[in-house]
Specification:
The protein is an all-alpha fold. It has a single domain, classed as Helix Hairpins (Orthogonal Bundle). Helix content is 92%, strand content 0%. The protein contains 3 helices and no strands. The longest helix is centred in the last third of the chain and has 84 residues. It starts with a helix and ends with a helix.
């Protein structure tokens, strides 16, 4: 094979490798965008989880307070029980007892609602933690893709430099 044919062959090889190099740079750009998107998603999920845990903690305090208010030893509502001593007093006491009972019922409903909210927050925090774990796995996977892609870029650059050196020797 004469020098001109070898040089043309090497130049086409360089051109092919540069096209591959360009595709690796494009993949690297796409991987980097995906990496940044996943990283932003992780930060957003972490903030969401932090807020959710803060509100869950507040709801737990409210639940504990309401529970003590309704059923605890120091609860006034739990101890009030009026008796009917006579006819006249009985109607007034019955009306007061009815109001107390309706307040107890409202407090019990509030307590059940707070408990339901706490359970919902627990479920939501579990879901967010699972999403975080999946996003972290995706981030790790993208990190590995980027590292592999970078090594491919370096390998191709060295191959191109080697082939260009061979072209210079033949010229």
């Amino acid at each position: 094979m004469d020098k001109a044919a070898q040089i043309a062959n090497f130049r086409s090889l360089v051109s092919s490798k540069q096209a591959n190099l360009h595709s690796y740079y494009e993949k690297d750009r796409v991987y980097q965008q995906q990496y940044n998107a996943e990283f932003s998603k992780i930060r957003q999920l972490e903030r969401e989880l932090e807020d959710l845990l803060f509100y869950k903690k507040k709801a737990m305090k409210e639940y504990t307070y309401m529970e003590e208010l309704i059923t605890g030893d120091g609860s006034r509502m739990g101890r009030i029980q009026l008796v009917k001593p006579g006819r006249l007093e009985g109607r007034a006491l019955e009306s007061i007892q009815n109001r107390i009972d309706s307040r107890k019922k409202a407090q019990q409903q509030t307590l059940a609602h707070i408990n339901q909210s706490i359970q919902h927050m627990k479920q939501k925090s579990t879901e967010i933690e699972q999403e975080l774990e999946a996003a972290r796995r995706q981030l790790l996977s993208l990190d590995q893709y980027i590292a592999t892609n970078q090594s491919n870029i370096q390998r191709l650059k060295m191959d191109i430099a080697r082939v260009q050196g061979q072209i210079r020797t033949l010229s």
